[in-house]
Structures are given as C-alpha cells and as structure tokens.
Design a protein that fits this description.
This protein is mainly alpha-helical and 76 residues long. It contains four helices and no strands.
Amino acid sequence: MKTITVRLPDHLAEELPEDEASISEVLKLGLKQMKIEKAIERFKKGGMSLAKAAELAGISIREMIPVAYAHGLEPK
C-alpha cells in the first residue's frame, strides 16, 4: 500500500472520516465520479460513443445512460 500526503482546506479536512477504510472509500468514490465526469465531457465533444465513454469511466453502459440524461444529453 502506498502512503500519500495531501493538503486540504480546513473545511474539507474537517469533513473527512477518521478511519483509514472510510477515507479510502471517499477517495475511491471521488475518483470514480471524476472518471465519469471526464468521460461525459469527452462524449459531449463528440467522436466517441456512449459505450466507449462508459468503458473509459469504468462503468457499464446501463450505468452511463442515466448519467448522460442527468447531464442533459440524449444518448442514441
């Protein structure tokens, strides 16, 4: 396992859970959401199918479809 040091604004640091497992879960969820957002942005720009965007995000097409609708997109 790798140890990292991250500087956070006080308001974020105060909201983080105390235990390592919970902090790992927060990071995992945040990274997943970031990958989804980046994939949606690439899909919006065109030249990529929603299926490819889902693959890049690491989720299924079934999970990606409602995300696309939530971003105002209408998948084919």
